[in-house]
Design goal:
This protein is mainly alpha-helical. It is built from twelve helices and no strands. It has one domain. The protein is globular, with a radius of gyration of 18 Å.
Length: 299
């Protein structure tokens, strides 16, 4: 069982670096084009891996849930996240993404599968306070080193779609191998973002990228796009979604470390205090939860 927790930890580290990589790549690549290009690279990795890993046959009754899974993430998630990161600091974005367990709880509560106790209410309020503090501290920001309110809202929208994705994936991962699920997501994203990338670049399709952006693009295409999802889905095959979502708490820590090394950034006082409130709130929300979050996904 320990190795499944290791899978989730490595996935969190890779995703922590993805915020920094995305920030670097966005300096020279438009958002929809960046998503399309990183998934083209991910698709090449899938083709290579398909020679060694068997692709499972999808049951017809699961198609609607797989389509919904792909719409939530990578579909909507990367639209919100990429445009959001363009207007936020990588650490701020990763702290907001750490709210995923809070929204997972809300989905479970709405579905009637989880009770709300005092710990969860306090945790939810702390998380809201943390995001509010970060938003207030960056309300007038308009530079590449700060975070705009619009960017924060976009990342919040990404968090909601990621929580929906987590709920769906926690059920499907018990039935399908992680390679199959990751491959389907990559194929869907290439098809979904191709017309968006074409429209975004019309009529100028020339690309003049620096080595720094190319390295960032390769990192995004190989590690976060494919291997992180492979590891995360593998972890979810043995660990319930509510517990696995706890590992998102590690993402802002890894992001802060990587950002300080690569971008030489230092989080503001508001970001540090707000981040502590968010992580503390998320910890309370997930405290003493039921082992199984059995949210029905079929009718």
């Amino acid at each position: 069982m320990a190795r499944y927790y290791l899978y989730l930890t490595i996935a969190a580290f890779i995703w922590g670096g993805s915020f920094v990589g995305t920030k670097i790549a966005l300096s020279e690549i438009r958002p929809m084009t960046l998503i399309f290009m990183r998934y083209i690279i991910g698709g090449i990795v899938v083709l290579i891996a398909s020679r060694y890993i068997k692709f499972q046959r999808i049951e017809k009754r699961d198609l609607k849930w797989l389509i919904l899974l792909c719409i939530f993430e990578p579909g909507l998630y990367f639209i919100f996240e990429t445009y959001g990161i363009r207007e936020t600091d990588p650490v701020v974005a990763s702290l907001i993404i750490a709210l995923i367990p809070v929204f997972v709880l809300l989905i479970a509560a709405i579905a009637g599968m989880e009770r709300v106790n005092v710990y969860k209410v306090v945790g939810l309020l702390l998380s809201i306070a943390g995001v509010s503090l970060i938003s207030y501290g960056n309300r007038d920001a308009d530079t590449s080193t700060q975070s705009s309110l619009r960017g924060i809202i976009l990342v919040l929208m990404a968090t909601i779609t990621a929580a929906s994705f987590t709920v769906l994936l926690s059920r499907l991962a018990k039935k399908y191998e992680s390679f199959t699920l990751a491959s389907i997501q990559i194929i869907f994203t290439i098809i979904f973002y191709l017309p968006l990338a074409i429209i975004e670049n019309y009529p100028d399709y020339r690309f003049d990228l620096s080595p720094r952006s190319i390295y960032a693009l390769l990192y995004l295409g190989v590690l976060p796009t494919f291997f992180a999802y492979l590891l995360y889905a593998k972890g979810l095959s043995r660990i319930e979604g509510s517990t696995a979502s706890l590992f998102t708490n590690l993402i802002p820590i890894f992001t802060a470390i990587i950002s300080s090394v690569v971008l030489s950034t230092i989080p503001s006082v508001n970001t540090l205090i707000g981040g502590a409130l968010i992580i503390g709130g998320v910890s309370l929300v997930t405290y003493n939860r039921r082992r199984e979050m059995d949210i029905p996904l079929t009718t």
